[in-house]
Amino acid sequence: MTYYTYLYFAEKLRDSLPYAPAAVVKLYHDAYLLGAMGADVLAPLGRTAAEIDVIDAYELFEQTAAYIYESGSKCQLAYMLGMLTHYLLDSRINPYLYYFAETGVPHYFDDDKEIVPYEDIRASVDYYISQAHLDGKKEELRAFRARKDVVEDIGKLYERAVCRAVGHILPAKEVDKCLSEPKWGEDRGVKMEELDYTNRECRTWKTVRGGEWTSNLSLEALLGKLETLAIKMFDDYMARVRSGIELNKMAFQVNHLGVLAAPKSRLNPSRAADSN
Prior knowledge:
Structural class: mainly alpha
Number of helices: 11
Oligomer: single chain
Radius of gyration: 18 Å
């Protein structure tokens, strides 16, 4: 798995940010990009990356916001704004990926479908983003490294706040090693000329794993919808960090895997893919 989609979305969002989050992101752009790569960079630690995918997303962002409220670290804030973009993509796009993994990826030129493993679909979507939107930028992104002091400050965030969400110690030095040298997977797409990974024909798919609500958004349209939602979540997180106002739990009912984590009756069934 590579990080093209996460970084593309995070960078594209920068052009639409209000002044306050834009200033934080500009000051600590490397922390923001690390956050956009998410806990995936912690894969060398074993279970930690997987745990962050399945824990209550509200707890992750509430605990980190509460800590940053006390620490006042703009570096940690930039990182968590990046993490918000990662969470938003995971929670809204994973149902899309899993739906087509379970029901088959449609062909471009006929009505047939082909069963493709989830990991291949994810890699193919990422490959599409790299080819369609990152021409000339791929090597620059793959060479990205954060400043040493930035990595160390984010390590403190894991050791003192993220640990509360996952329920066990996360030593800063071990986290720092992963953040300093992100591991990239191989670029690959599977039958890109034949299979409609981007849902160009706007076929219906389920927007939440564990729910029955649907959308017919294409991948590109979904990314566009998520930009608006990301700005709202940035504003809410900034308010939590600055004033101590508790985050809205309703915004985090779907975890990173796209699974509905709260009782279904609490989720607005209108369209979880582009609303909260």
